[in-house]
Amino acid sequence: MKDQLQQQPRDLDGSPVTPGLPMAMLAEITHRCPLACPYCSNPVELTRAAQELTADDWGRVFRQAADLGVLQVHISGGEPGARRDLAQIVGHARDAGLYVNLITSGIGITRDRLEDLDRAGVDHVQLSLQGIRPDMADRISGHPGSWDKKMGFASWVRDIGFPLTINAVVHRQNLERLPDMIALAENLGARRIEVATVQFHGWADLNRRALMPTREQAAAARQVVNDARIRLRGRMVIDYVPADHHAVYPKACMGGWGSTGLNVAPDGTVLPCHAAQSIPWMRFENVRDRPLGEIWRLSDSFNAFRGTAWMAEPCRSCDRKTLDFGGCRCQAMALAGDARATDPVCSLSPLHAQVLARAETDAQADAAEFIYRRMKKGE
Amino acid sequence: MTAQPARIVPPPLIGPDDIPYLPRGVRLACDRVRGIRVLQAPERAMQLDAIGDAILGELDGARSMGTIVATLADRYNAPPDQIAGDVRDFLTGLIERRMVFVRGQNGDGP
């Protein structure tokens, strides 16, 4: 009886919840990266190489993920190419039956290695884009020469025949060039472009005053995307993550906490989303200690915000609560100081006016210099 | 203020003589955990119903949509006009998502 009680998944208030099946897993196989983008989605506390899971560890995790219902793995980092055994890791993922998306900066993967990755079974390549032309791209990525290397990498992707997605991260300092980024993706033969406005967690939050888009930029970007979608119908897909500080309702982060996706960090820590470690009281489990399926179904971190019973007002009585799930828990933590609060970017949040005013102030800031993502000395 | 424009139905992206195919990186698969058929594509796995699975199972990169429609109409003993509309709309949706490619009979196309 006691065992059964312990096995019933419960949210952070003790209400029973029902875990579903995950579709996708983000495998952050390393935090090492030659770039230093000031909005990096890795945590501010980066994991060292010595703490990384081995390729065989990843093989075990992929098999457990496939048994759990995961269909696709996104192999990312850091820069996944920083691991010499990347092709072996990819091979393990395909052997487990997963569809393999490689998410890369394109820096540090030679043509020979890309051909190895083709043989290992990479299904699709997503290439990040920091800006247009060397001056902008190299400054934002903090890596001289990055633009030329990326363009070379994109041509190899095309020669080998991988499907290509361009991932353009946009913010105040490059949004004016969005039409050029879309045109570039088209010229590179990309099937898709993801236009993702910077999400202000971690490193990006440290750079808010240099990155926050203006309201005018957010509106113009929406128009550019809408026009391009019509022009490119049937030729290139445009996925767009708008600037949520300027939205009416928050984004449905992760499609709901612990509902369809999970993230495994370089050292094996399993996270409900890549920013979850910004919730200071939350404890996470590790694939070194417990099988992935048990972590998904039974860990306190995944169950904390499943379902809707944990919500406070105004979410609790809101008819959008099963559409956006109250928005992003990490953003609620960062902006409201409470991970269970309504995401303060929601126009129904009592903090909304204050958050919007701060975003407007940051967007007008005379700050162009970045705090680049770096490992601390000794890491 | 401008009035809300009338809802426009976008034109189909494939005709009877065009040859539809699954490009590299897109494949039919079994989801053994959920017991369903899925279309695996870049960063997307789409659940297929029996009709969608039957249509995509016919894509061999050689036969035109018209031939595929005739095959399906014959197999399911259904009116070809209705099958033609269903297949055209289903494939148009996937072409919009770049999960199905099309080449003309002369072999041109992406």
Automatic annotation (TrEMBL), chain A:
Enzyme Commission code: 1.21.98.4
GO terms assigned for molecular function: 4 iron, 4 sulfur cluster binding; cyclase activity; iron ion binding; oxidoreductase activity; S-adenosyl-L-methionine binding
Residue numbers binding [4Fe-4S] cluster: 33, 37, 40
Similarity field: Belongs to the radical SAM superfamily. PqqE family.
Name the UniProt record assigns to this protein: PqqA peptide cyclase
Co-factor requirement: [4Fe-4S] cluster
Catalyzed reactions per annotation: [PQQ precursor protein] + S-adenosyl-L-methionine = E-Y cross-linked-[PQQ precursor protein] + 5'-deoxyadenosine + L-methionine + H(+)
GO biological process, one term: pyrroloquinoline quinone biosynthetic process
Kinase among keywords: no
Pfam families for this protein: Radical_SAM, SPASM
Alphabetical keyword list: 4Fe-4S, Iron, Iron-sulfur, Metal-binding, Oxidoreductase, PQQ biosynthesis, S-adenosyl-L-methionine
Automatic annotation (TrEMBL), chain B:
Gene Ontology annotations of biological process type: pyrroloquinoline quinone biosynthetic process
Name listed for the protein in its UniProt record: Pyrroloquinoline quinone biosynthesis peptide chaperone PqqD
GO terms, molecular function: quinone binding
Keyword field contains Repeat: no
Coiled coil residues, start to end: none
Subunit structure: Monomer. Interacts with PqqE.
Organism, as annotated: Paracoccus sediminis
Domain of life from the UniProt record: Bacteria
Pathway involvement of the protein, from the record: Cofactor biosynthesis; pyrroloquinoline quinone biosynthesis
Keywords: PQQ biosynthesis
Pfam entry (one): PqqD
InterPro entries (alphabetical): PQQD (IPR008792), PqqD_bac (IPR022479), PqqD_sf (IPR041881)
